[in-house]
Amino acid sequence: MTEVTRRAIIAIAAADETATVEERDRIAFALAGKFRVFSVTEVSEMLGLSRPTVYDMLKKGEIKRTSRGQITEWSINEYLHGVKEERQAV
Asked: Is the pTM of this model over 0.70?
């Protein structure tokens, strides 16, 4: 699967704004056959944050996990989108 195809599938899953993160992940998973998951270390490196900060964000629900405790690409994108909206509102 190409990167463009994978991103298109994620966009389709994102169209349902009433869906939870887990539901969106399941939609993307069903359509794409897979989705990327990340460790706390990988997320901390991607966002330029310390691991304890990422753990705090997970605990507060700022970054969401699936019921299996996985941090998905969708969760990271949703967090980043929220940060972007907050910056635009200021």
From this structure: no
